[in-house]
Design goal:
The protein is mainly α. It has helices spanning 2-17, 34-47, 59-71, 87-90, 101-108, 127-136, 141-144; strands at residues 56-58, 77-79.
Length: 161
C-alpha cells in the first residue's frame, strides 16, 4: 500500500523535524473507498503515535457520515473549518463549502464528541476570539447569504484542458 510507505516515512521524519502534512492522493488515481479512508486514518493514528498528535479529517472531502466514522477510529481533528472552502468544491466535492459551528457540533454529537476551537498552531484561542466565533456561529453574514437566498455558484469558463 503506497500510503503505508508514506506514513512510515512521515513517522520517521516527524521524529526529528516536527509535524508534516500527509496526503495519500495520487494524481489520476480513483477516489479511495470508504473502507480505504477508514484504514488510512486509523493506520495514521497508530503509525504516527508520539510523533504527530493530531490526525485530521476533512468534512468537505469525506462528508458527514465518513467523518463520523474516522473520528470514531483514530481521528481527533475535524479539519477544513474555514470561513469558506471552494477548492474541493471546484474539484468536484459535493459536501458543501462551509458549515457553522452549530452544524459541526451536530455532525459529531451522535458519536459523543465535543468541538474545541483551536488556533492554527493547535493552541487555545483567546476569550475574545472564542466570543466572536460564538456570536457569529463561526460564519460571517456575507458567506451565509440571506435567508432563502443561498450564495450563487459561479462557473468559470473552461481553460481549454
Amino acid at each position: 500500500m503506497r500510503c503505508a510507505a508514506r506514513l512510515r516515512a512521515l513517522a520517521m521524519a516527524s521524529c526529528s523535524t516536527g509535524p508534516r502534512l500527509l496526503s495519500c492522493s495520487t494524481p489520476g488515481a480513483r477516489n479511495p473507498t470508504r473502507r480505504e479512508n477508514r484504514a488510512v486514518h486509523a493506520l495514521s493514528r497508530l503509525m504516527l503515535h508520539g510523533g504527530i498528535g493530531s490526525i485530521q479529517c476533512s468534512w468537505v472531502k469525506l462528508g458527514d457520515d465518513l467523518c463520523r466514522d474516522v473520528l470514531a477510529g483514530g481521528v481527533n481533528d475535524l479539519g477544513v473549518t474555514l470561513m469558506e472552502e471552494t477548492v474541493s468544491r471546484m474539484a468536484g466535492s459535493e459536501n458543501g463549502s462551509f458549515k457553522t459551528i452549530s452544524q459541526l457540533a451536530d455532525m459529531v454529537a451522535p458519536i459523543g464528541r465535543q468541538l474545541r476551537q483551536r488556533t492554527t498552531t493547535y493552541g487555545q484561542p483567546s476569550a475574545q476570539r472564542l466570543a466572536a466565533a460564538s456570536a457569529s456561529d463561526g460564519v460571517c453574514a456575507s458567506v451565509r447569504g440571506l435567508p432563502g437566498r443561498p450564495l450563487p455558484l459561479i462557473s468559470l469558463p473552461s481553460a481549454g484542458f
